[in-house]
Write the structure tokens for this entry.
Amino acid sequence: MNRGTPELVVSIGLSAAIVSVAEERPRVLVVRRSQDIADALPFGPFEPLHHRTLESGLRSWVEEQTLLGLGYAEQLYTFGDRGRHLVTPGEGPRVVSVGYLALTRGGTELKAPDTHWRDWYQYFPWEDWRRERPALIDSTIAPALKKFAKAADASDLAEERRARARICFGLEGLPWDEEKALERYELLYEAGLVEEARRDGRKIAADGLPDPPLGVSMMFDHRRILATAIARLRGKMKYRPVVFELMAPAFTMLELQRTVEAISGVRLHKQNFRRLIENQGLVERTGKFTRTARGRPAELFRFRREVLRERPAPGVRLGARRGTANA
């Protein structure tokens, strides 16, 4: 061993983006103590002597911090880039974080202190297209990204930045792709338009950070991890029936549609959605109806688990979209 070379110390951290949907709001569970400067995802270190696997370590930390037992969970990505957050003197070993996506049903009561459900669109306000195209895309984001491209020191880099902006944010007539949530956040970070860039010591946009800011910041790179979780969930629910992990055992077709819309951030055509779900054999009738004080009772459905054995990709494809909530 070369004694002149400093010892490389790496710590493995485990982070969880725990998602639920309630009252048509996609929510993520965050931890926020009085001394913290920002919201954080539940996280903790992997301890090889106590945790048999990474996932068992994650479940242990989540239960300890939030008093919430996880159901469905899957590994997202390993975040180990140098400079993921600003390292200060004496901070300790470099942290490689393994991110997870976990799903739980809405209405889950939080019993642990310092834990809160937050609407994930408060961190990514440009992602919610259910009512209309978010105004801040044209008023703030597009002009700032145009300046970011113009500031490039080479013409090919400038064109690359312009192309990324067009593709990510649906500019100049290009379609919106809801699955590019991570690419959009990373572009804003690189352009120095989000608080995390300033906090990490990155170069900030020439005009400074937008005011009001582009979404609420999170601790470390937790907003990046959450963006990864959103992108994964939006994509996966199209070929796997993971959305039913967020539903009650019995639900109306409208409740299912509103949950899919909340996650995807786009409004869907009611009749086409119902036809799509029924034709794919994803649900079955329970023979029961909702009880309402007024209006017509709605039929209740449940997830038809046999579909998992019948075909390889039984997901909820979005089908025809509608531009606004009232279209």
Summary: The chain has a mean pLDDT of 88. The CA atoms of residues 42 and 247 lie 23 Å apart. The longest helix spans residues 135-150. The radius of gyration is 22 Å.
